[in-house]
Amino acid sequence: MQTSARPWLTLDEAAERAHRDQRTIRRWAATGRVRDWEPLGVRLFNRDDIDQAKRETRGQGRRKVSDVSY
Predict the structure, then answer these.
(1) What is the pLDDT of residues 7-30, one digit of tens each?
(2) Which residue from 4, 28, 51, 69 could staple onto 33, CB 3.0 to 4.6 Å apart?
(3) Which residues contact 39 (CB under 8 A, 6 or more apart)?
(4) 35-44 own/partner pairs: CB under 8 Å, 24+ apart
(5) What pTM value is reported for the model?
């Protein structure tokens, strides 16, 4: 028996899948990087978009203050 993955994830699931903080997932949605949907007051995030955003940001950790030029 084959089961298909759900196309929409809760905030907790999306953050865990992307290995990112929940604030990052919210920011990705606010900037249009990932699609979100809010049926009945529960905010959901598109699984494929989360996977794509994770691939695009791989290796891009937080910058240190010393890395920023003025």
Answers:
(1) 999 999 999 999 999 999 999 999
(2) 28
(3) none
(4) 37/8, 42/10, 43/10, 43/11, 44/8, 44/9, 44/10
(5) 0.74
